[in-house]
Write a structure and sequence with these properties.
Oligomer: homodimer
Strand content of chain A: under 5%
Number of helices of chain A: 10
Shape of chain A: elongated
Number of strands of chain A: 0
Distance between the termini of chain A: 46 Å
Chain lengths: ~170, ~170
DNA sequence: AACAAAATAAACAGTCTGTTGATGTTGCGA
DNA sequence: TCGCAACATCAACAGACTGTTTATTTTGTT
């Protein structure tokens, strides 16, 4: 485990980046700027990270880890609804992650960590040709991502239970 | 209409960027580099474009324009299959556009120019609540994009007619 | 062939990167 | 609780790239 000093330093860098991402996209954020905001020496930044993207990755990893811990603690099933509820409780963080990083990439990780992708695939009927089936899976998975994204970026979001219901009903048509 | 000299200059810049994009993502391409590759003075670049993204946009616009002209010339219907055939005939260009620019953004423009988005929505049943319907549309549209993307990036792609058939059959379930 | 439009050239200040070596500062185990 | 290894800072570096300006040369059009 990393010692306290490192953890604090990294935390300050992460918080600085998050603050910056509220006002501009990741591609316009410089290492220089992050360090000024965090009041951390630039040399120190390079000790831990190679670029702002690298730092963002770490933030994403933290989020995924917390998600895992949270679900385990509560002994919750890795159900779609539980994931959506968690996301709903961390809207601000998720919005930053989904708009800054490649959004499909982020949702893919969230879903895959919770084995949701498998679950969605499991709902599909198996009465199709191999090629056709591969495309069906793609369609359903990315269609689901798009629903989550739209919901997450909406200003008057429906409750997570409703979105879970909608997604399940969409996927079950196949 | 722009005179010949300008057209040639812009063309060289576009070709240079395309060549560079075969080896690296747009965010790592500098104006400097484009101009060296194109053997065009950097000052000239700034006369027409503000950034590499700006230039890429112009390339995308050219593609969309050619698509339109092509479909009009052949008096073809703006059908899904015709669009997919056109894409299939310009695989290399499309792959660069889809991987360099935001891929959903690109497909959205292609589809919308051909009024395909409307057509897809038209296939949807109208027996749903307002909210649920909005999400269904999102699901279907982005699901379709994902199929096209997967097909386009595949090494042994199916013929466009088959993909058109698959997409239609997927959308028709709703 | 003349001229206006376009492209080049050289130079500028300025921002950011990535790395170095020397110098402070602090948390943790003995 | 104290010493030292680990960590953070500081200053300075060469170098890449950005945007812009001013003066000069080339070229297409009429």
């Amino acid at each position: 485990m990393e010692n306290q000093r490192i953890r604090v330093t990294k935390k300050m860098l992460k918080e600085a980046l998050v603050r910056l991402l509220e006002n501009k996209p990741i591609e316009k954020v410089s290492v220089y700027e992050i360090c000024q905001t965090a009041e951390i020496n630039r040399t120190t930044f390079y000790k831990y990270y190679g670029s702002p993207y690298d730092l963002l990755n770490d933030i994403q990893a933290d989020f995924l880890h917390e998600l895992e811990v949270n679900l385990q603690e509560k002994e919750q099933l890795y159900s779609l609804q539980n994931i959506l509820t968690y996301i709903d409780n961390h809207r601000d963080a998720c919005r930053i992650l989904i708009t800054s990083a490649d959004s499909d990439g982020f949702l893919e990780k969230v879903f895959s960590q919770a084995s949701l992708t498998n679950q969605l695939e499991g709902l599909l009927a198996s009465t199709q040709s191999e090629a056709s089936r591969r495309y069906t899976t793609e369609f359903v998975v990315y269609g689901s991502y798009s629903v989550v994204r739209k919901w997450l970026l909406s200003d008057q979001p429906e409750p997570p239970e409703e979105i879970a219901r909608i997604i399940i009903s969409l996927v079950q048509r196949f």
